[in-house]
Write a structure and sequence with these properties.
The structure is a homodimer. The first copy, chain A, has 3 domains: about 120 residues, MgtE N-terminal domain-like (MgtE N-terminal fold), CATH 1.25.60.10; about 110 residues, Roll (CBS-domain), CATH 3.10.580; about 180 residues, Tetracycline Repressor, domain 2 (Orthogonal Bundle), CATH 1.10.357.20. The first copy, chain A, contains 20 helices and 7 strands. In chain A, the strands form 3 sheets. In chain A, strands 3-4-5 form a 3-stranded mixed sheet. Chain A has a two-stranded antiparallel ribbon with strand order 1-2. A two-stranded antiparallel ribbon of chain A has the order 6-7. In chain A, helix 7 packs across helix 9 and helix 17 crosses helix 20. Chain A is elongated, with a radius of gyration of 30 Å.
Chain lengths: ~450, ~450
């Protein structure tokens, strides 16, 4: 690849590449991120193969697929072949045509087959997260044979998470043995003598990625074997992939709770148009729903004309409903994610949220009444001759709205899961919008009762 | 411990304990969680020591400290001594008096010293997360000596994350070697011959817990050594502790973004009063700030009286400001957490958010104008003779408010970090409240300009 001339200055990639030799993969990745894809590709083209592989084996390069597409095809193919299969497959998920087909065709047959098999798993599945490189030995081997195998055959592997022992006939997974246990065992004994009493925890390739995270986190595993329904081992999901998936998931969860589609790219790197698109969708949907508030207000026009004083508290009351709803939603999203509550616990949650909401609403209601009373008595503002009734209206409406907000906010994640969506789709703005229209109805309803015959 | 009589039925812990023998620690923990603390303590008292240790070595038992306090002191002390030191210290953090002092006094001197040292580290530090149990060998040893040591001395350890090689004189950390590399090395060569070229990644005990997470995640480590300023090794933070910390952090982040103080306990388990307290604080603070909207509305009373039609769109317009702010805040909270942006990038973010907000506001404004025009033309509602000006007011106000919301929402996490707070303290309700008062001012300001001489 020739050097790039930009702004009249030739970009010389070679010395940059030479300075990177021997650095950690994650640090090379960070370094490449400082450059645009063309410059990064020029640097990578000058790197020794093993250094490039180290860097691309990290999930940290933001525009990895663009860089790969810009590399000379044979360089890219050699790198993709030498990388761990799960990372290679991950890159192919994002690669665009024609690079995708051309590179796939240039991979050696076995790697191509592995990549195609991994690509067949859905994006959020355990299968899509697994690596097909693991140490498996037949259960007929002795410990000495296994150790010899690791010494000789597996010497390129930096970490041996566990040795997986398979049935020599049916080829099914029998046990998982740690290196430490192999070391302490009698070399002439069967490898199974070093195995723990219990069967290893496993996962199916089509199970959710989050389930792999949960199992690895719960049982403190370094890797979890992925097996097909007949018990054959397909690969392992390792703890470092799980950590990457957790970080990604956490970002998506916070972004969605804030009412944005998950960006999938760093904030300063995502295209401006792409970001507008990811934000406009929800914003417009919420705006359209929120238009119902205008319709509701139109319905209460005669009340508004008679008692303008009521309008003063509309923002205050509506925001309180939204805030309490947002609190309840955030609590239940996490409780569902951590499996602290289950779909069938919805009524237990409802039975907690309704009294919680009523108490919280009463607290706010009292503050509201106090505020109106104070302002009236001190003379900051005149709420008219019926000010005690206005204060009562505001207080009572707050109890109703905060209770309703807490209830709706808590039920929304359950409803979403019941309908097959991710409960984390329930965002704070979503809840606020749901609560707003009803909040207005509650407010004017309470006003109609309390102020009937005086202001209304 | 005698059996417990409850509701007239004797609770027989022994058969339950017997059924648990041989189960995985995490599963025993789950099982104990189904019972109240007294019942769980009765079950634990009947468990063989090693089974109890397995379960309590898990972070999964919700009321572990209550159970420990209820156990006979000698049983509890034996268990705390046999557990990994970081978990024991973790339990002591939560134990109440007098159990805390009594149990600490009953621990063997070396364990007590270790626990006291660990407890001295602040709760959010890497030191508080570390375990003091790790394999360290002097650099004068051969590979064969190290392997023999692991076989003989370290045989109780389930996982050897790495072997840490120290300077025999100064006792400082020199290298970290994986078991796999030791296995492939020449047994008679120095242990250093199996070490990688690079120094291990390390962390100081007073650094943030999140930094340990970041380093382990970035460099795909299974454990990170914690060293003091002179290079002596104090312990290791292991990947499973990091995963637990990540889950905890994620829950706190979502809850805080929803406007609740982090619960620290499962939703269905936390006391009702405690939950009210964690929610009421923020809710009241937001309510008090939001009262400024009432004051603002009072200031615009004469405009409201002249043009009631303006009130119809107040909820719609204010919620749009809050929603766009919530989007921007969620994006920046994560971008800061992932270090995609830095404190000094605030102006770059501002330069993205202002045009984004203007475009998003223009989209919503156009929808708003369309809605008013349609309703007027179809005859759903009569916005009066000046309806085109009303529509223009709503549209123009939306541009202003959404731009302002995006800007404030994006700047809030920066401001919080600048002031020394966690940027994740910025919740969706917090942003909405910030934006609401200004939103009203923008709306009535725009109305004053556009409707001057007609409605106002």
């Amino acid at each position: 690849m020739q050097n790039i001339v930009e702004d009249g200055v030739e970009f010389d990639a070679r010395p940059l590449a030479e300075a990177l030799v021997g650095a950690r993969g994650a640090d090379i990745a960070d370094f490449l991120d400082e450059y645009d894809a063309e410059q990064a590709a020029a640097i990578v083209a000058h790197l020794p193969l093993e250094e490039a592989v180290k860097a691309f084996d990290q999930p940290g390069i933001d525009n990895a697929e663009e860089i790969v597409a810009l590399l000379p095809r044979p360089t890219a193919a050699a790198m993709l072949d030498a990388m761990s299969a799960d990372r290679t497959a991950g890159l192919f998920r994002w690669l665009e045509e024609p690079a995708r087909s051309e590179l796939l065709a240039q991979l050696p047959a076995d790697m191509r087959e592995t990549v195609e098999r991994l690509l067949a798993y859905p994006e959020e599945s355990a299968g899509s997260l697994m690596t097909t490189e693991f140490v498996a030995v037949p259960s007929t081997w002795t410990i000495a044979q296994v150790l010899h195998h690791i010494r000789m055959v597996e010497r390129t592997r930096e970490t041996v998470y566990a040795v997986y022992v398979t049935d020599p006939v049916r080829n099914t997974l029998v046990q998982a043995v740690t290196l430490r246990r192999l070391l302490s065992g009698d070399p002439h004994a069967s490898v199974l003598s070093a195995a723990p009493e219990r069967k290893p925890v496993t996962i199916g390739p089509y199970e959710q990625r989050d389930e792999a995270t949960r199992l690895i986190s719960k049982y403190d595993l370094l890797a979890i074997p992925v097996i097909d329904p007949r018990g054959h081992m397909l690969g392992i999901v390792t703890v470092d992939d799980v950590i990457d998936a957790m970080v990604e998931r956490q970002t998506a969860e916070v972004q969605r709770f804030g009412g944005v589609e998950a960006l999938d790219e760093p904030y300063l790197r995502i295209g401006f148009g792409e970001m507008i698109r990811k934000r406009a969708g929800w914003l417009c949907a919420l705006f359209l729903s929120e238009m119902l508030t205008a319709s509701a207000m139109q319905g209460f026009e005669s009340e508004l004309e008679k008692a303008i004083v009521l309008t003063l508290f509309i923002p205050l009351i509506m925001s309180s409903g939204g805030n309490s709803g947002s609190q309840a939603t955030s609590l239940i999203i996490r409780a569902l994610a951590l499996r602290e509550v289950d779909l069938r616990d919805w009524w237990r949650v409802a039975l907690r949220e309704i009294p919680s909401g009523a108490i919280l609403g009463a607290i706010l209601g009292m503050i509201g009444i106090l505020r109106i009373t104070l302002w009236q008595q001190i003379g900051f503002y005149d709420y008219g001759p019926h000010w005690p009734l206005v204060a009562l209206t505001v207080g009572a409406a707050l109890v109703g709205i905060v209770t309703f907000g807490s209830f709706v906010g808590a039920m929304l994640p359950f409803a979403l899961r019941r309908l097959g969506f991710d409960p984390a789709t329930a965002s704070a703005p979503f809840v606020a919008t749901l609560v707003d229209v009803t909040g207005l109805v509650i407010y004017f309803g309470v006003a109609a009762v309390i102020l009937h015959g005086t202001l209304l």
